[in-house]
Write a structure and sequence with these properties.
With 163 residues, this protein is mainly alpha-helical. The chain is 21% helix and 0% strand.
Length: 163
């Protein structure tokens, strides 16, 4: 990503889904399911939270009671909020390296997904495709090689009048 990834704990949500109809040159390259199952691997993953029944979308009353201590502990943890300095660092990181956001991709998502928090100032930087308006890439512009201009040697023939 061009910088160190934040070292503070974060939440994690991962899915593996088939986007081959739109994400691979307009569907030219399909997912090859002969390589299934697809596996995601996380290194040094530490989870801190409250276990819920995997099938349920909402916690039951008993689980809510069991989790009340967890909620209080998590809310008091140093990583539950970020400082002003950390917020500034994250904003600066996004300005330097974020070149696409599905939250601002109004062609694909006319109504932003529920997890998106739209920042009007940040939105101004993106086209309706979710890509940056200027530059379009997170990469640094290529530097032109600074060749030293070599003096052209032009042969000059001087005729000697004595000859």
């Amino acid at each position: 990503m061009g910088s160190e990834y934040p070292s503070k704990p974060m939440s994690l949500y991962a899915t593996i889904w088939d986007a081959s109809t739109w994400a691979t040159s307009g569907g030219r390259f399909k997912a090859d399911y002969k390589y299934a199952p697809f596996v995601a691997e996380f290194k040094d993953l530490a989870l801190d939270g409250c276990p819920l029944e995997a099938v349920q979308q909402v916690a039951s009353a008993a689980e809510e009671l069991d989790c009340s201590d967890s909620h209080a502990r998590l809310a008091a943890a140093d990583y539950s909020t970020i400082s002003r300095k950390q917020r500034y660092a994250m904003r600066r990181f996004r300005q330097r390296y974020l070149y696409y956001s599905y939250c601002y991709d109004t062609l694909r998502y006319p109504i932003p997904p529920p997890e998106c928090v739209i920042d009007p100032m940040e939105k101004e930087r993106f086209k309706d495709t979710g890509r940056l308006k200027f530059g379009g890439s997170h990469r640094s512009p290529k530097r032109r090689s600074k060749r030293r201009s070599r003096a052209r040697v032009v042969p000059v023939i001087v005729e000697d009048p004595d000859m």
